[in-house]
Every structure is written in C-alpha cells, then in structure tokens.
Write a structure and sequence with these properties.
mainly beta
C-alpha cells in the first residue's frame, strides 16, 4: 500500500507564493516520474508540472516561469513552488507518482488565490 500526503495549500493574495509538498510512504520500490495536477471547479483535472526520475521537468505554458517542481528522492517527496500566483491558479492540487508497482494519487490540497 502506498500513501501520498500533501501539504502547503492555503489562501493567498494574487502575486503571492505557496510551496506544496507531497510525501510518499508505504510499499514503494521504485519511483519514476512525479507530478502535480490541479482541478478548478467545473473543470477537468490538468497537469501543471512533471519531473522525471533523472530530474527533467516539463510545464504547460500557463505556469511556465512561475511554478517549479523538484524532488527529494531520499525522502520520496515532490515539491511545487508556486510564485506570482493568479486567481486562475485556484483549485485543488493533487500529486501523482509513477512507480514500478503502479500509479498513485494524493488526496489533494486546496489552493485559493484572491484578487
């Protein structure tokens, strides 16, 4: 069994920053890619950042230059530094990890950006 615990969400004014964390525990044998998704009310869940096992990263244009994903392999933890936040960044942020045994989701953490 694998558990993902996210933290770091909250309410922030436009232009502010938040650092999200997602720690994986349990029967983890090999973590490959790690990523963050978000889902705004009434919208589909979308990818906002992904990092490979070798550290390569990818972002959609909507967050490029503002969000930074990183990982600590020793702690099986992935981070998302979000800067220059906009109201349209509001949503529930989920982490996702790809392992040899399967793919797992976190429970989500709410990010609300006020204008």
């Amino acid at each position: 069994q694998v558990q993902l615990v996210e933290s770091g969400g909250g309410l922030v004014q436009a232009g502010g920053s938040l650092r999200l964390s997602c720690a994986a525990s349990g029967s983890i044998f090999s973590v490959n890619a790690m990523g963050w998704y978000r889902q705004a009310p009434g919208k589909q869940r979308e990818l906002v950042a992904i990092i490979s096992s070798s550290g390569d990263t990818n972002y959609p244009d909507s967050v490029k230059g503002r969000f930074t994903i990183s990982r600590d392999n020793a702690k099986n933890t992935v981070y998302l530094q979000t800067n220059s936040l906009k109201p349209e960044d509001t949503g529930v942020y989920y982490c996702r990890i790809w392992t040899r045994a399967g793919v797992y989701w976190g429970q989500g953490t709410q990010v609300t950006v006020s204008s």
